[in-house]
Structures are given as structure tokens and as C-alpha cells.
């Protein structure tokens, strides 16, 4: 199934699909990866996937990863050198690994012609991968190079209560809108608990309300509690979200539902090619246009600053030239002859105002007013 689905109508090889497994701690991500790895190897002919382990703190892995973060980064040494706890150590190790992820992409590109699927097993602490810069870098880098699908693993026994079900759905919704990638809900551990009630809650809002009522979320006066009202409101908001999701019940223990999961993966590939790729091309084109616009603005600004600097020097030169001209003009008399201002002209004669006479008064003295 996997090999035939990976061929186009012209017979040319498609790029492999990258499956990023994400889920809460204890939801069974690593066991799920081991199960789909076994399923692909059991096909005729076998179609072994390319596997990447991104959990630096895991002790034993039930499959043989092609790329293992533990080969390049010592989790305990990171904790010791940076004085970190377990979660901080995992986050720092993933950040260090992300700085060299271009080399990982090169290795994936080299193997892309020989495999149909590539599987990423993420750390158990979901927030470390989904809300960290390194997780976003890895997700965006993979999604820009290969068809990529996010498989959100749900611990079905722990989601049987309406409150925990709503918490899982809210987290799934946040990851979907953050990555904008094709999304598959994988209800794991169906051999322990049937997922049918949860699937019914997704299909019918009234069934979820009935489940809330049966839980007895009411106060002493018989009125719905705040949490009951909140979950009712959120379920109304998520009703549209459920319609766009593909939910697949599987059992990593027995292998039930794995073929249906790969059918959902192939449908997600089509969604990636028809919706995500055009959006990626549009965003890339916008970024290129913004970059060109920024370069033009910078070039214009540099040219303006250069012209401003030239004008400033020119105005300063003109200022000093005008001062020199004024000085030169002052050094000439009205006849254009040069005046030697270093010559001493002698003392200026003093005038005795007491001996001043009025003009035309025949020597009559001027009576000055007293102060």
C-alpha cells in the first residue's frame, strides 16, 4: 500500500511524507512510532521509514532511529554544564540540535528517493517542542522541504472525562493553528478504552452537553457551575474545529487502526499539496517582495544620506568663502587701494564739551541742562 501510494500517475517518485508525532507525556508516542515502523516493514514489499528521535532524555527506544539526538548531545552533560533541571535540559539540548538542523535536512534529502515515509518522534514534554523556538524551526524547516503531517497522539483512557477531553481538544486546536499543517487526531490505546464516546462528542454537540450534565457539575443550588458553563461555551467554539479534523482510533499495542491511519496520512498529503504549498509559496513571495522593498529603501536612504553629506560640505565651503570675501572687501578702501591696518593713526583728540559753541551764535556758549 505504502509503495504504490508513493508513486504518481506518471511513475515518478514523490517526496516522502514526514509524520511529526506530538502528544502529552504518557500518551504513547514512542510506542506508536514503533508500531507504524513495524507495520511499514511488514508490507510486501517492505517499506521501512526513515526515523528520527528528537527526545534527548529517553533511555530506551523500541526502534532503531536513523538519526538520534542522543548521538550528538549528552542530555546529562547539558544539565550539568548549564545547571538546569530535566525540562530545561531537554529544551537546551533541542535548541543546540536545532542549530545544526540544516545538516539533518541534507541527510533527509539524500534518503528521500529511497523511502516513502519519515517519522519524527518528539520529546515527551509536549510544550518543549510545540512552544519553543527550536520546535518551530524544525517544523518549518521540514514542512518547507517535504509534505508534512502532524499526528497528535491522544491518551484515550485519560480523555474519557469531558474536562480532560476538552483540554486535549484545546491543545490540539492551538497546535493546528500554530503550525497550519495537515492535522490528524490519533486516539491511542483503544484496546483499553473505546474512543466512540469521544468521537460522538466531536460529531454531536448535544451529546457532549449530556455528558457534562451526567457528570454532575452543579453547585449547591442546582445551577451549572462555572466550569460547566465554560466547557459548554468552548464546545460551541470548537464545533467548527471538529469538522476540519480527521480522527483515527488506533491501538499501538495490537496494531488495530494502523492501515486507516495511513489512509488519513495520504489524504493529508493531498491537503498539504493543495492548501499548505500555495500558502507557503505566497508567504515566500511576500517575504521576497518585502526584502526587495527593504533593500530599495535602504539604498534610497544611503543615497539620500550621501547627497546630504555632500550638500553639507558644499554649504560649509560656501559659508567660509563668503566670510573670506567680506574680509577681503574690508581690506580695501573706496578707491580700491589696499589699506594697511597695522599703521598707527595716533591718539584721537579729546573734545571739551564746555567750550562747544552753537553754530551761528558768534561764540555764544551752550547752556546745558542740569541733571
TrEMBL record:
Residues 319-371 are annotated as: Disordered. InterPro entries: Gpn, Gpn1/Npa3/XAB1, P-loop_NTPase. Its EC number is 3.6.5.-. The keyword Lipoprotein does not apply. Keywords: Cytoplasm, GTP-binding, Hydrolase, Nucleotide-binding, Phosphoprotein. Signal peptide: none annotated. Pfam families: ATP_bind_1. It is found in: Cytoplasm; Nucleus. Belongs to the GPN-loop GTPase family. Small GTPase required for proper nuclear import of RNA polymerase II (RNAPII). May act at an RNAP assembly step prior to nuclear import. Binds to RNA polymerase II. This is GPN-loop GTPase. The lineage of its organism: Eukaryota, Fungi, Dikarya, Basidiomycota, Agaricomycotina.
Amino acid at each position: 500500500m505504502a509503495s504504490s501510494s508513493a508513486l504518481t500517475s506518471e511513475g515518478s517518485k514523490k517526496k516522502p511524507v514526514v509524520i511529526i508525532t506530538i502528544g502529552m507525556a504518557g500518551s504513547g508516542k514512542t510506542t506508536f512510532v514503533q508500531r507504524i515502523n513495524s507495520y511499514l516493514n511488514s508490507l510486501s514489499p517492505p517499506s521501512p521509514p526513515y526515523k528520527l528521535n528528537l527526545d534527548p532524555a529517553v533511555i530506551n527506544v523500541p526502534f532503531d532511529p536513523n538519526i538520534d539526538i542522543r548521538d550528538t548531545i549528552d542530555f546529562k552533560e547539558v544539565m550539568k554544564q548549564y545547571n538546569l533541571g530535566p525540562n530545561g535540559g531537554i529544551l537546551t539540548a533541542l535548541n543546540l540540535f536545532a542549530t545544526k538542523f540544516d545538516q539533518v535536512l541534507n541527510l533527509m534529502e539524500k534518503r528521500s528517493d529511497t523511502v516513502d515515509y519519515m517519522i519524527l518522534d518528539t520529546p515527551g514534554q509536549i510544550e518543549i517542542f510545540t512552544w519553543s523556538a527550536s520546535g518551530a524551526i524544525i517544523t518549518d524547516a521540514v514542512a518547507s522541504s517535504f509534505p508534512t503531517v502532524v499526528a497528535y497522539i491522544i491518551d484515550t483512557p485519560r480523555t474519557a472525562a469531558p474536562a480532560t477531553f476538552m483540554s486535549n481538544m484545546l491543545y490540539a486546536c492551538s497546535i493546528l493553528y500554530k503550525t497550519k499543517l495537515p492535522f490528524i487526531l490519533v486516539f491511542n490505546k483503544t484496546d483499553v478504552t473505546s474512543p466512540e464516546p469521544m468521537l460522538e462528542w466531536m460529531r454531536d454537540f448535544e451529546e457532549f452537553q449530556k455528558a457534562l450534565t451526567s457528570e454532575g457539575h452543579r453547585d449547591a443550588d442546582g445551577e451549572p457551575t462555572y466550569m460547566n458553563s465554560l466547557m459548554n461555551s468552548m464546545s460551541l467554539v470548537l464545533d467548527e474545529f471538529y469538522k476540519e479534523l480527521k480522527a483515527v482510533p488506533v491501538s499501538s499495542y495490537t496494531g488495530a487502526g494502523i492501515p486507516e491511519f495511513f489512509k488519513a496520512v495520504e489524504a493529508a498529503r493531498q491537503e498539504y499539496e493543495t492548501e499548505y504549498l500555495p500558502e507557503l509559496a505566497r508567504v515566500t513571495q511576500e517575504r521576497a517582495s518585502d526584502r526587495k522593498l527593504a533593500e530599495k529603501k535602504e539604498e534610497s536612504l544611503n543615497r539620500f544620506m550621501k547627497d546630504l553629506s555632500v550638500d553639507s560640505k558644499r554649504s560649509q565651503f560656501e559659508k567660509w568663502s563668503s566670510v573670506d570675501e567680506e574680509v577681503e572687501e574690508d581690506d580695501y578702501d573706496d578707491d580700491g587701494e589696499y589699506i594697511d591696518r597695522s599703521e598707527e593713526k595716533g591718539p584721537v583728540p579729546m573734545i571739551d564739551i564746555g567750550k562747544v559753541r552753537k553754530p551761528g551764535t558768534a561764540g555764544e556758549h551752550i547752556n546745558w541742562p542740569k541733571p
